[in-house]
Input
Amino acid sequence: MSTLIDILLLSLMGITALAAVRMKSLFGAVMLTGIFSLLSALWFLILDAVDVSFTEAAVGAGISTVLMLGTLSLTKSEEKTSNHSQIIPLFVVFVTGGVLIYGTLDMPDFADPLAPIHTHVAPHYIEKSGAEIGVPNIVTSVLASYRGFDTLGEVTVIFTAGVGVLLLLGIGRRREDGDE
Amino acid sequence: MNWVTHYNYWIVILLMMLGFYTIIARGNLVKKIIGLNIFQTSVFVLFISMGKIPGGVAPILRDDPTTIYSNPLPHVLILTAIVVGVATTALGLALVVRINEAYGTIEEDEIHEQDRFF
Amino acid sequence: MMFFVTVIALFPAMFLALGRAIVGPTLYDRVLAVNSFGTFTVLMIAVLGFMTDQTDFVDIALTYALINFIGTIAVLKFFVVGDFGYEEQRDQ
Amino acid sequence: MINFLSWVLLLSGCFCVLISAIGLIRMPDLFTRMHAAGVGDTLGAILVIAGLMLQAGPTLLLAKLVLIMFFLLFTGPTACHALAKAALAGGEKPLLDDNNQ
Output
């Protein structure tokens, strides 16, 4: 029953991505990226990843779309047709895709409860984290306690990116204004 | 193996191919970043779909001891990846804005054309 | 069963809204399609929560409804003003 | 009885949502599409949420569903109105009947 929902949703995602890639108007492509984020958030929700879905909706559909629209307001909004040969990129892409499809033949089935990913580390977190950390949400306890240094690294990455954006846009712009 | 149990992998590969093609074949820089986003999302979908257990519920502890929870580890990894991904997008878009200020265009061909004279 | 029927009935609506977002022709058509699509997503999340007996999903549907509205208004402001209003502040 | 009412509300909600989506794709110009999408979406969303409210029973869940319903009830028409205003300001003209011009 839920297989039908999965297949319909994944097909919608594929169609949206295809349309976003083919769209010449960059505004239209950004709008379709927003729809794509909503769809992927919906798919994460179906797969029980509540926190991921929440983040994807706020970050993907919200912040990314606004950032891209802001960029478009400062640059051009129409894509020019490229006159390059498309054969080499298509060849590379199809070879990569073919290799990956060959790789999926060995992968465990979708939602297989005996897949290796479910047997190794996760049972420990599911059984013990309630007693060890005391937070009902397992994702929170792993993110903030068991893997706290990973999150610290993540914060460092975001800080670096923020500094980069400020250096690229904020400070240079202000100095130009001061000179004029 | 039949096509229903591997359909998610095929959509992941389709998304990956679309994003990869956009990154290497399209000249427009904003389009390249859109391709990068699609590529990223394909990886997210791959990870999250591996964590699903049939009949499982979201990994938030309940009083009932017989509850089956989905695997929380991919959720943690992807939560980090999404936030890092938006930082990357913001940095890339800032670079696009600066390139547009310096060259007056966001098409790769025209940027190469102008670079040839220096 | 009734929730399943509702979810399946929402899919054609999503396909049609996606079609309008792809075809265009104006930017406003696309914004309208995205807005409708967001509403369908909110409904689908709420119904899915009831279908799988995880009623926490309703919280997420609430967030989505707000994000969708704010996103639409932000995009429209962008179309009318041409930016998000920083230029005016700098001029003053 | 409650189940039957919920079925009726959910199905009529789906019907409205589907009609609004068909209007979105079939109508000839922007403003008629906006009419179809704005009206149909809001009514359909409210009917579906009302159907869910009957299933929720008097709990905290009901309060959340009421909140969602109110948000959709207010934001749908507001977004549509803002869209129409932006489209008019952006130079889109409604399609008029030739005889009236």
Remarks:
- Residues 20 and 29 of chain A are 5 Å apart (CA to CA).
